[in-house]
């Protein structure tokens, strides 16, 4: 490989899976994480770990120079939508301002490639699905806005300076490393599949179904769930594409292009365990769109990446295997 890469947020859920995918593909990896939501143990021994903040330009500049970093994969950030509504400045600090500092440090150090964790939350409530990248961005919460602002900074920087970038707009990321090396470990989860597997292991008494009157076939919200290891591999493919196409940048959806309703997800969990979890029908959660499904034709056309784990049952199995591991660890 031509150079080592820096992974910010590499001790977190998606970042740690990206670190595994990069190491598996033969890359040298330096992780920068402040461990506010990540875990030191989630970073493999074979990666270099630096504890610190993305917004610390002096530290970042030193790390970039010392290791001769040639690309940054930027996962560090805050991701809880309702929290972004009550504490917007946290999101503009951790997602927008911190990214600005990181991008400037990258430019100063001459790092030519940048990959950014963006989100389908940039679209807000789409006019139609599947959602294409050229559809309007109208985020309905500060989380989506804070990520969109970073996309804009990258676009403007790439137009003016010697850096190209990919922003990957994630749909609903779920599952865990198939080999059991990492998974979603943060306490206080809000994501459906994580909550469902917590209900399986007895960490929760039931799963609430937030809204049964959506404009969807069964009335519950429909989402495009993507296996975290497929998403991680998309980043490795994007990195190779950036190196081969130094004049080009892309913003790409990352999903499978197929939606499942909340009830279909819970049915899948029940089928995997052969044991029904308790469902409670509840009212809508604020700010949830009916239907979010990616049109993934751009990423499929651009990268050689192909999903390897496009199977909701498999996603649930891997999420559950990791949840059981966490439960055992908590007991011992
Ligand atoms: N849901 C439930 N019960 C739960 C949790 C979720 O019924 O206990 C429902 C939600 O209402 C929604 C679906 O399950 O219909 C998925 O909800 P998640 O919280 O798992 O995920 P979101 O679709 O809300 O969020 C995802 C990403 C965000 C991103 C957003 C874009 O996690 O980062 O998509 O809208 F901002």
From TrEMBL:
Its cofactor is NAD(+). It catalyses: UDP-alpha-D-glucose = UDP-alpha-D-galactose. It is an enzyme of class 5 (isomerase). Gene3D superfamilies: NAD(P)-binding Rossmann-like Domain, UDP-galactose 4-epimerase, domain 1. Pfam families: Epimerase. Residues 5-255 form the NAD-dependent epimerase/dehydratase domain. InterPro entries: Epimerase_deHydtase, NAD(P)-bd_dom_sf, UDP_G4E. The keyword Repeat does not apply. Pathway: Carbohydrate metabolism; galactose metabolism. Keywords: Carbohydrate metabolism, Isomerase, NAD. Its EC number is 5.1.3.2. One of its GO terms (molecular function) is UDP-glucose 4-epimerase activity. PANTHER family: UDP-ARABINOSE 4-EPIMERASE 1, UDP-GLUCOSE 4-EPIMERASE. Homodimer. Belongs to the NAD(P)-dependent epimerase/dehydratase family. This is UDP-glucose 4-epimerase. The lineage of its organism: Bacteria, Pseudomonadati, Pseudomonadota, Alphaproteobacteria, Sphingomonadales. The gene is galE.
């Amino acid at each position: 490989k031509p150079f080592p890469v820096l992974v910010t947020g590499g001790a977190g859920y998606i970042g740690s899976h990206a670190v595994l995918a990069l190491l598996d593909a033969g890359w040298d990896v330096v992780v920068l994480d402040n461990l506010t939501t990540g875990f030191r143990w989630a970073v493999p021994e074979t990666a270099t770990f630096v504890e610190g903040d993305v917004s610390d330009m002096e530290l970042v500049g030193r790390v970039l120079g010392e290791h001769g970093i040639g690309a940054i994969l930027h996962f560090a950030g805050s991701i809880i939508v309702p929290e972004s509504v009550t504490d917007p400045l946290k999101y503009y600090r951790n997602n927008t301002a911190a990214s600005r500092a990181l991008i400037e440090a990258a430019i100063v150090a001459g790092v030519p490639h940048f990959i950014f964790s963006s989100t389908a939350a940039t679209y807000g409530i789409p006019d139609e699905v599947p959602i294409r990248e050229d559809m309007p961005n109208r985020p309905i919460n500060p989380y989506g806005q804070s990520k969109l602002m970073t996309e804009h900074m990258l676009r403007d920087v790439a137009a003016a300076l010697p850096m190209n970038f990919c922003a990957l707009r994630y749909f609903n990321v779920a599952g865990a490393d198939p080999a059991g090396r990492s998974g979603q470990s943060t306490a206080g989860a809000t994501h459906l599949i994580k909550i469902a597997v917590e209900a399986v292991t007895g960490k929760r008494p039931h799963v609430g179904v937030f809204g049964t009157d959506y404009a969807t076939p069964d009335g519950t919200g429909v989402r495009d769930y993507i296996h975290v290891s497929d998403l991680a591999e998309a980043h490795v493919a994007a990195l190779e594409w950036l190196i081969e196409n130094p004049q080009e940048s892309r913003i790409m959806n990352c999903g499978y292009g197929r939606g499942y309703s909340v009830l279909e997800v819970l049915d899948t969990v029940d089928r995997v365990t052969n044991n029904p979890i308790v469902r409670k029908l509840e009212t809508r959660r604020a700010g949830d769109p009916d239907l979010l499904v990616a049109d993934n034709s751009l990423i499929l056309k651009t990268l050689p990446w192909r999903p390897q784990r496009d199977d909701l049952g498999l996603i649930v199995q891997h999420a559950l295997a990791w949840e059981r591991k966490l439960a055992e660890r908590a007991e011992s």
